[in-house]
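A quick aside before the break. I want you to see a complete sequence-to-structure record at least once, exactly as it would be stored in a machine-readable document. Don't worry about memorizing anything.
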Amino acid sequence: MEITRVDVRPIRGRGNLKALCSVVFDDCFVVHAVKILEGDQGLYVAMPSRKVNGRQFLDVAHPTTERFRHTLEKIVIQKYLEAMGELHHSS
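That is the input. The structure line, written in tokens, reads:
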């Protein structure tokens, strides 16, 4: 499976939430609401989730292997950094 497009929407003023992304796979399947967050260890990717039982969050979609999770995170964060670079240069 190939990640063929990542659309990044930077978020400002929302704490550790830095962006929301849509990730397209093989030009035929999209996952929305992929989040880029900033934690103590730097940027990381959180998959879309929903609240259950009023307190617990469960992923709606997620990679099933550690290898693909790493690939997804690397590409999404790179696209975010590129988008932020473009935003800073256009200001």
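Two observations worth writing down. The longest helix spans residues 66-90. The beta strands are 3-10, 17-25, 29-39, 42-46, 49-52, 56-59. We'll return to this after the break.
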